[in-house]
């Protein structure tokens, strides 16, 4: 019971500091193949910079739907679970796409592929400055695009299963390592 209260408090803190934004509507599909997602970086533009303090709105938990709250809480319960290449369950260990797949299955009853590139083709494109908790963020960590995925938690934080450094953890997208490797984001809804 104490762990649940601690996780709820942590999730509330993260969610309260997240940015509220409307979905992006300016993505284009011109000159891109149908089997590949379209991201701002594809069009030769740099990812949008972080909103200024005047543009930033704090999230009220009432504005985050229950599915997103459950998704974030489910993800937080997995912090510390060991990394395992190809891992699909917390008991055996998780890799990045296994974490995302497991969390979406448990919290939203959605079956996602077990591959970051395949997941990157689902849902809708989201500009970096439009990220909301529950969006998926993609990175180039293996010298190929969309080779790593995590779940955005708000305030530039995301949860992921890194191949080095132990297990599932929450990290900051503003860290130089992640900034240089950011590929884009997708929003997957249960609708």
Key descriptive features of the protein:
single chain; 191 residues; alpha+beta; endopeptidase fold (from Nostoc punctiforme); six-stranded antiparallel beta sheet; two-stranded antiparallel sheet; 5 helices; 8 strands; disordered N terminus
Q: What does this 3D model show about the protein?
A:
The chain has helices spanning 2-16, 66-76, 96-108, 116-119, 176-181; strands at residues 88-89, 93-94, 124-126, 136-139, 148-154, 157-160, 169-172, 182-187. The chain contains 5 helices and 8 strands; from the N terminus they run ααββααβββββαβ. With 191 residues, it is α+β, with helices and mostly antiparallel strands. 26% of the residues lie in helices and 17% in strands. The termini are far apart. The protein has a single domain (2-21, 50-187), classed as endopeptidase domain like (from Nostoc punctiforme) (endopeptidase fold (from Nostoc punctiforme), Alpha-Beta Complex), CATH 3.90.1720.10.
